[in-house]
Amino acid sequence: MSEEMKPCPACESPYGYPNGGDLFACPECSHEWNPNELAAENALVVKDVNGNILQDGDAIIVIKNLNVKGASGPIKAGTKVKNIRLNDGDHNIDCKISGFGAMALKSEFVKKA
After folding, report:
1. pLDDT at 36
2. Through-space distance between the first and last CA atoms of the chain, rounded to whole angstroms
3. Which residues, 6+ apart, have CB-to-CB distance to 44 below 8 Å?
4. DSSP label at 20?
5. pLDDT (tens digit, 9 = 90+) per residue, 7-44?
6. pLDDT recorded at residue 42
7. Counting C-beta atoms within 10 Å of the first and last residue's C-beta, which end of the chain has fewer, N or C?
8. pLDDT score of 76
């Protein structure tokens, strides 16, 4: 596949070609798209319990006690966590918590600080 070709988001044909400017076109289904806009649409959006959008590097506060397997006690409600990283999946927040180390949390149990 040529570096100028991009797969079509509509039919997944690998033969999408530049169609002038920022647009690409598919020879099989005639779909036209802008790959820059497509990347923005597929961006990861993670919201806290109150519906605030979280971003990498934000600080959060745990809203309820969270039991941790293998730990002597839970992560207490009110624990502040700095410099989070977002990822795709069930536990969509990666962070380091003092006394626990690296953790993965669910966004439904945190609020933006």
Report:
1. 79
2. 46
3. 86, 87, 88, 92
4. S
5. 988 888 999 999 878 899 999 999 998 887 766 556 67
6. 61
7. N
8. 95
